Amino acid sequence: MIQTSAAISVENLWKSFTYLSRGSETLKETFLSWLRRGSSGSKSRELYNGLSFSIQSGEVVAFLGKNGSGKSTLLKLISGIYWPDRGEIRVNGKLSALIELGAGFHPEFSGRENVFIYGQVLGMPRKKMAEIVQDIIEFSELGDFIDQPVKVYSSGMYMRLAFSVAVMIDPDILVIDEILSVGDFSFARKCMAKMNEFKAMGKTICLVSHDLQTVQSWATRAIVLHLGRVVFDGPPEEAVRFYLGLEKAAPVSSVGIAVPQLETPSLFSRDLLGLWQDRFLTSFMKPIDFDLDVVGREKAWVIVASSANDLLPFGYSHLKLSDLLAKFEESFHQGEIFQIRICILKDGEGLSQLKNLLNGFCTHHRLKLADLQFHTFEHLGSASVLLPAQCVFYSLDWVSTSQVFSTIEYRFTSSSSVKIEHIALWGEHDFLELPRGEQSFRLQCDSCRVPLSFKRTSCSIPMTIKQVVDSSPLDSSQTFFKVVVLSDFALSSSSLALVLRSLQDFCSRLSASDREALEFLFWGDPIAEAALSPENSSSCVAWGDSLIFSANKTVFVTLNQHDIFLKVEEALRNRGITLIGGSRLDKCLSEEQMAVELEQSFRDAFSSQGNEVMFEAKFVSAFNDRRNG
Amino acid sequence: MVDLLRAHSEYYSNIYKNRELIWILAKRDLAARYKGSVLGFLWTFLNPLLLMLTYSLVFRNLSRFEIPDYSLFVLQGVLIWQAFSACVNEGSFSLLAAGGLVTKTPLPPEVIPFKVVLAQCMNLLLAFCVYAVFAIFIYKRIPYTLLALPLIFVFLALFFVYLASVLSVLSALYRDIQQLVGNILTILFFATPVVYSFDDMAPNIQNLLLMNPVAQVFRITSDVIFWGRMPHGSAIFISFACLLFLQVFAVFVTAWFRRRLAERI
Fold first, then answer.
1. In what order do the strands lie in the sheet with A420-425?
2. Would you call B264 and A24 a contact, using CB atoms and an 8 Å cutoff?
3. pLDDT-derived band of residue B188, with 50, 70 and 90 as boundaries?
4. Secondary structure of residue A6 in the 3-state scheme
5. Most confident segment among A49-53, A610-614, B232-236
6. In the structure, what pLDDT confidence band is assigned to residue A245 with cuts at 50, 70 and 90?
7. Do B20 and A26 touch (CB under 8 A)?
8. Which of B94, B24, B104, B115 has the alpha carbon at shortest distance from A166?
9. Which of chain B's residues have a Cβ under 8 Å away from the Cβ of A103?
10. Dist CA A325 CA A320 (whole Å)
């Protein structure tokens, strides 16, 4: 009976598979896991979590997807070979499953005998079988071979016989796994004709096929599965295009976040990764930026930002989420799938805005935001954030960068299967003065055995200090003061407030004419810009953990390092320069080393010509801190 | 927990629905066994004869048992033992051997051990023709209790099938079971009155044997088939208690693991 209602309905299907370390579980392992109260040693992987769809009777539905996306398992679940963990699968009508042709064939028996057995296995009563056995034999075109044992059959003949049984028992629903092209050309055509007959009769067909031609021409609907989820459900032509986009994508990380049910078309979730690398990160940044090679894992990407601000449209990062989303959208319309995994290391400012932004984007595209994981820095060590093989780190300030590195290194080296060969940084660290003429240098860190290399890249924003200065040259004839506020990209709001307050203090002490003549240089810190610019249409250079000096009548603002600040102040006072404003944070560093470092820097700076000398003091504070315990 | 009542109805309705298939598969197993061999079906009769010859020669000279018509006694014991060990061996391997039938078709797994045991029981029935020939024409030993032989067969078949069901499921999940089964069968052979009689044993050994339900089953069969006497109450009680337990256990294990079975094979 063909029902008018849904022929197959799958509701909220959950299924996980247990992967056993040695192919099968031994008694010992089971007993041990009982002793450990249920903490079984075997790993299980969730294949479907909350899959739902329904197939109307008369539909020809093709399932597309990469290998391992769960197509065949789905057919097995529909056919009742596997059982769902949760959820329901309802099948209306007689179902014939062609998961594997000739599954019940016995090689010693004749084709005719096997037809009976196979028919029984497929659920045909013997009497009915006897009626149709002749039709089956005719359809199979095996002729005299039918009374030979099937072990003498060629594989084509074997398949023909099995296929003939499966289609001749007249099912309401036919479930076919990859077996449409059976036998030689003429037989395959005959099979297709039979299938078309089925279609015309309004029978329901579910098939898994990689023969996209057939899918396009024959199916009435196609469902693309990816990582156990329906990522596309619609007309076959579009589905094929979508699927091809999927195929082109880079391999995806094996690490995923549990994804709730996604609506059609759905694509946002789990791992951003592979695609960004291929699709637009390459055009967006130079590939050389991503250099964290982990041996023995699939390549994948994770975006780690030190704070949510970095990803916001007004954030100061060069990798803004809005840009990414724009790119994302572009690629989305090209029918590709994206997965994003964002790890925010600091909670606090910008988080809710980031969430809103993502939600807005998802709502706009009728997507469901799967899961946005926010890891606070403290959680980093225990979180699985860093398990994907390749990680993108950016917008981390010095301290957190080094901490992240040691964390990463600890995590990776503690799991024996992964080795880090190289960690590369880019971007703001160009502010570090690179040895002249070199494009990169290596920094050895005592506790971090992995060589850290810093590369000079041109794609990050504020470039080097030199470039900043070049782009807005100090002109003493017109400018009374230059205020150069340097903050790092991950400038926290508290430190920013300090900067602003000190700037305000500074300004209030100026005479009116001086204040008018004062030029603020804003750069790179839009929040500071927003706070300061309305009345002063200027720009501000923001860069932290560094000291910037303009030798003549200059304001120095430094962040983070009170001790340094004091030293700077002292050094400047000795040279007749007054330092106005400043801020402090609690991080301290090894004084001796900094003193040496600073002294050298100052000597260099003040001995050079002109009054527009800028230099920076490098803080190796983080490393020093750690070295000292 | 598994609802035992529902599990029972599911179990037996699956068996009933697939009765034709069980029959066909059992016939296929039986036919396939000797297919391609020269003597073919004759092996069904030759096997027990050869075994009888071996055992009676060995044990008549080694043992001090005073059993009249010892060869005949050994024949019935060995025939049933063969069926038993084949059911246990093949039964425990049956789900794994069936492979494609369970993993590629929606066939209820309980069907498989049934067809194995059915094939073995048909084999046993045929082999008993040999016993009949010996008993009637050579030893002239035809006790009236042989009338209960059909009952004995039904009992054995049920005993075998539940045992095979339990083992088939467990060994599909834990491959160790197969290793265990081989060893236990060897021990069991000597701990079961197959080539000796229960009554000949010293009382302390009899007490030990009472703890072995399989020994009790063989006590019953030898009493009914060979000795021609009513089996002892203790043997009947233990055997039936064991059968009941196995039945419930088989249904329970099948229902409990049904959902995971196909993917674990």
1. A293-294, A420-425, A452-455, A440-443
2. yes
3. very high
4. strand
5. B232-236
6. low
7. no
8. B104
9. 100-101, 103-105
10. 9
Query: Which is nearest to A250 in space by CA: A282, A218, A284?
Result: A282
The residues in B 175-204 lying below 8 A from A, measured between CB atoms, are: 175-177
- B174–A26 CB contact, under 8 Å: yes
Give the pLDDT score at B247.
Answer: 95
Weakest mean pLDDT among A221-225, A414-418, A460-464? A460-464
B176 neighbourhood in chain A, CB within 8 Å = 26-28
Place of tokens 């949510």: A308
Bridge partner list, A6: A56
A355's tokens: 């969430």
B24 touches chain A (CB under 8 A): yes
The confidence score (pLDDT) of residue A357 equals 62
For residue B37, pLDDT over 60 is answered with yes
Of these ranges, A477-481, B98-102, B202-206, the one predicted with the greatest mean pLDDT is: B202-206
Rounded CA-CA distance B237/B243 in Å is: 10
Give the total residue count for chain B: 265
CB B88 within 8 A of CB B116: no
pLDDT at position B165 over 90: yes
Tokens representing residue A585 in the block? 């944070």
Report the C-alpha gap between A534 and A539 in whole angstroms. Answer: 11
Mark yes or no for CB contact A106/B28 under 8 Å.
yes
Mean pLDDT calculated for residue range A414-442: 35
Radius of gyration of chain A (CA): 33
pTM above 0.90, yes or no: no
CB-based contacts of A62, cutoff 8 Å, min separation 6:
A207, A208, A209, A215, A218, A219, A221, A222, A223, A236, A239
Q: Is B174 near chain A, with CB under 8 Å?
A: yes
pLDDT reported for residue B185: 93
What's the pLDDT tens digit per position in A588-618?
334 444 444 444 444 444 444 333 333 333 3
First and final C-alpha spacing in chain A: 77
Q: What residues have CB less than 8 Å from B62, skipping those under 6 apart? A: none
Residue A523 has pLDDT above 90, yes or no: no
Element (H or E) spanning B160, and its range? helix B149-173
This model of the complex carries an ipTM of 0.77
DSSP letter for each residue of A400-453: HHHHHHHHHHHHHHHSTT--EEEEEE-GGGGGSPPPTT-SEEEE--SS--SPEE
User: Where would I find the beta strands (DSSP E) of A189-311?
Assistant: 204-208, 221-226, 229-234, 293-294, 303-307
Three-state SS at A627: helix
Contact (Cβ atoms closer than 8 angstroms) between residue A552 and residue A472 = no
Across the range A43-60, mean pLDDT stands at 79
CA-nearest residue of chain B to A176? B104
Residue A171 in 3-state DSSP? coil
- Say whether A81 and B105 touch across the interface (CB within 8 A): yes
Residue A230 burial (10 A CB sphere; 0-12, 13-18, 19+): buried
B104 to A109: CB separation less than 8 angstroms, yes or no? no
State the Cα–Cα distance between residues A91 and A8, nearest whole angstrom.
5
pLDDT over 70 for what percent of chain B?
98
Say if the Cβ atoms of B106 and A97 lie within 8 Å. Answer: yes
Sequence-ordered list of residues with C-beta below 8 angstroms from that of A445, at least 6 positions apart, any chain: A402, A405, A452, A623, A626
Residue pLDDT, tens place only, A93-144: 888 877 776 666 777 778 888 888 888 777 777 788 888 888 888 888 888 8
Of A18, A81, A100, the CB nearest to B262: A81
**Both tokens assigned to A177:** 């796994």
Under the banding of pLDDT at 50, 70 and 90, the label for residue B240 is: very high
Q: How many CB atoms lie within 10 A of CB A58?
A: 16
